[in-house]
Design a protein that fits this description.
The protein has helices spanning 14-24, 32-39, 45-53, 88-97, 99-127, 159-170, 174-182, 187-193, 204-217, and strands spanning 2-7, 27-31, 132-136, 151-156, 196-199. Strands 2-3-1-4-5 form a 5-stranded parallel beta sheet, sandwiched between helices. Helices cover 50% and strands 12% of the residues.
């Protein structure tokens, strides 16, 4: 089973690449964002670790009722759903408002995601059901996944193309786009660490041809 990391800046079109791979390969696909959300649901370890890290913040959607305690040792397997979920807006504001807040959350979530992924990869490799294992993660280089997987694919699109996509599909402002892009690696840094660069600055047919070429070379 070939293990491949899919990475690239915000708005580069990684989802389109994943859709092609899902439709054309015998593969398993997982996304770092999906795993992080799973590990942050009420009752999971990251949920409590984040709450404990910000005792002066109210990050959950509603007040805890029925005398429930937001302490990890108070959780029972059958009552996790009783704990209130994070208020996504408040959590997002905390992460994007300061480097310190973002750093604390990342220091909790990223190691947990890595542990989950590496265990999942090992399990799938042992079962031998798939030809490919694709893992999509924005911080592939920063978190060292390029050294843990067989290949790393960088999905490239120009800044102007990415900005247009983010405004059209997500309604992001120029300020929000600049804030996110400035926190990510440059194209040159991505390319220096990646096995393949897939150009997604053109039409969908060109993108699919680029992916197909890499798969056939493998």
């Amino acid at each position: 089973m070939k293990k491949v990391v899919i990475t690239g800046g915000v708005g580069s079109g990684k989802s389109k690449v994943l859709k092609y791979l899902k439709d054309n390969c015998n593969c398993k696909i997982i996304r770092a964002d999906d795993i992080a959300k799973k590990l942050m649901i009420p009752g999971e370890k990251c949920y409590f670790d984040i709450i404990k890290a910000f005792p002066d913040k109210t990050l959950v959607r509603e007040e805890v009722e029925s005398g429930l305690s937001l302490e990890e040792d108070a959780v029972q397997a059958d009552n996790k759903s009783d704990y209130p979920p994070f208020d996504k807006k408040k959590l997002s504001e905390l992460v994007f408002a300061s480097d310190k807040g973002r750093g604390i959350v990342n220091s909790i979530v990223h190691p947990a995601v890595k542990e989950y992924v590496l265990e999942d990869v090992a399990g799938e490799d042992k079962k031998g059901s798939y030809d490919y294992y694709f893992f999509e993660v924005a911080l592939a280089i920063e978190e060292g996944y390029d050294k843990l997987f067989d290949e790393t694919w960088f999905i490239y699109a120009s800044r102007s193309t990415r900005c247009e996509r983010l405004k059209r599909t997500r309604g992001y402002s120029e300020g929000r786009i600049d804030e996110i892009m400035s926190s990510q690696l440059s194209d040159e840094e991505y390319k220096a660490h990646c096995t393949h660069t897939i150009n997604n600055d053109g039409n969908i047919e060109d993108l699919y041809n680029n992916i197909s070429h890499i798969l056939h070379c493998d």
